[in-house]
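thought: fold this chain, then report.
action: predict
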Amino acid sequence: MSSLKSIWNCLFSPRLIQIYGTGAEQMYEEDPLERWGNQIINSLYMMWKVGLCTSPLWGSALYNKGYFQLQELPFIAKCATGVGVILVISFCIRGLSRAKNPAYLKFLDVLQRAENDMVATKPELMKYDFEFKSWPVEYDLSDTKSPTPKASPRVAVPQGAFQNIVSIPFRVIAYLAIHTFGIRLIYPGVLGVLQAVLEKGLLKGRTRLIEVYAGQRYKLKTVDGNSIDTMVLDRRSSYANGDTLVICCEGNAGFYEIGTVITPIEAGYSVIGWNHPGFGGSTGMPYPAQEQNAIDAVIQFAINILGFKVENIMLFGWSIGGYAVSWAAMTYPDIKSVVIDATFDDIMPLALSQMPSWLESIVKLAIREHANLDIYEQLSKYPGPVLLIRRTEDEVICIRPGDLSSNRCNNLLIKIFKTRYPCMCELPQVQLLHEYLAVTGVLQEKILEKYSIDDSICTSLLQSYISEFSKSYPMKIGQDFSPTEKNQMILFLAKKYMKDFKATHCVALPWDMFAVPWDVNVEPDFVYT
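observation:
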């Protein structure tokens, strides 16, 4: 009886991939029958997914050939029955093989105990790498008493009844486009094919985080029911920077296993990495609302479960990860600071530059109504320190390849300055900023020398303003400045807010480039002289 129960439990149990803690990487060795069963099941699953995506093509072809007529139904039923029989046999063979494997039965026992008492069983469960869908949920955001308010995406609504009627077909097309291929173009990491190609690399990266850096894996559940695959490295007791938690947000094809987390890890911080909805072990799709719920769950988990204070949390985003960072910074204004690498101000210009001009109206509708990734709009509502890292050879964020002046990070910086220091951003100063941001390295240094930038004087002026008025934005500093003083101050601020990194878009950021953003500190008794 117990054997039958074991076989039954093994029929639909998760695939075991790797066993940790053996001193070396140890892949779980499947028996030949289990391997055969898995291959059949996975092949049929992939055929099903591909079939769904291509159903309009083969469905219309079969219809034209008359396969959907009544007399053809027995043939279709036979085919479906045959596939069903193969699938059932594959599950049975796989379950039987697993039930005879002591290593798998030991894992299954740990998993079943973890479902009842995750806290006590977590150390044992961390020894196994398996299909994440079966990992028990460890934090459910719906359990919290104070849900975080969500920002509504901006929607471009045509004015007037006639325009509304005329726009209906375009809106339908925009909706279908973004919910079929559009979101996958924006976030290619959600594609199963790409994840299959990266599977070994993701496993290797995850192994490194767990075995080398003592990372702990968690499953978080968002308010909309998605599961978020999360990796935590709590280093509060072992590193000088460990009291500061860095939450990393990856790019559109980035995963925490092989992504930005390594940069703050090597810099000695406590770190949380998480995968976008639909990436890796996370469920869902990376639409803006689901992205917001995901980062919200991560921050709430860090505060309520890990015990980090909001003022000790830094946000670090790379590329499109700047969207989640900017939303979190806006929603949690007491966050310590924000660092964003290789990002943009608004996805619209980048999207338009990649699509045919005749699709412009549909692209605008699709972006603004369904994928409104406007990083500046959200970041402008954050009152804390910000550091932008610009890739000087970025081939993704530049509208014109090889033209540094078209890097959209420039636009983000200028927009931030217009919001924070409006009196410093008159036309001559904006033109000077464009000139400064169009170059890098030695050429920037020459501009700074030309305008005689004195860091101590600029810092003192800011400290004097803050001590007399406040540190809140927008600051009115510069109202009584001469044009020369405004030029000096705006260049000083640009130097502090942005760091250049000579690299292309996907090169890993060195740990020594990662730093707490610059901020103006004012002593209570400060007096400018």
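thought: worth noting. The longest helix spans residues 73-99.
final: tokens above.
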